[in-house]
Amino acid sequence: MDNHGPDIFPRMLDFLLECEIDLAEFTVLTPFPGTPYFDEMKKSGRLLHEDFSHYNAEEVVIRPAKMTPEQLAAGYLAMWDGFYQDETQPEKMYRLYRRVTERSPFAKIGARERKPIPGQRAGDGALWGGVVEARREARRSNPTGE
């Protein structure tokens, strides 16, 4: 947001970890075409480009008010890396699933040992065949999406 500087990322990460949030998704505020926000960013000259293939909520396409595009891109990656540092997203999802199903009133009906689905082992991006890691590497090598 326009009122956030680069210090927002470590503060937000500390808050999420302190609250012990189970899962989190992080996106970059993106001015999608046809929205008032897009019109505002275009009018103020803050669009970095209009290559809409990069308007995906992962790549920085605007010039933020209180940080550089590179700081925003680095902060976005730091949020993903920091939040999932000790336990990957698939591992957290599996733990949450187990916790919810064990509390379910139907958990004892037809109870059986739950095993991961073949190919869905724990590991960074394992559920999606490495897509997550490939996107992360692409963003690291080109943080502004240009």
Helices and strands, with pairings:
Layout: H1 8-19, H2 36-43, H3 69-83, H4 89-103, H5 131-141
Helix pairs in contact: 1-3
What can be said about the biggest beta sheet?
none
- Judged by helices, strands and strand pairing, the structural class is mainly alpha
What portion of residues belong to β-strands? under 5%
The count of strands amounts to 0
Number of domains: 1
Mean pLDDT: 81
One letter per element, helices H and strands E, the order comes to HHHHH
**Radius of gyration from CA coordinates:** 19 Å
Enumerate how many helices there are, as a single number.
5
Helix content: 40-55%
Cα shape:
elongated
Low-pLDDT regions: 120-132
- The CA-CA distance between the termini, in Å, is 21 Å
Task: Compose a concise summary of this entry.
With 146 residues, this protein is mainly α. It is built from 5 helices and no strands.
Explained architecture:
- The two termini are 21 Å apart.
- Helices cover 42% and strands 0% of the residues.
- It has helices spanning 8-19, 36-43, 69-83, 89-103, 131-141.
- The chain has one domain.
- The protein is mainly alpha-helical and 146 residues long.
- Helix 1 runs parallel beside helix 3.
- The chain is elongated.
- It contains five helices and no strands.
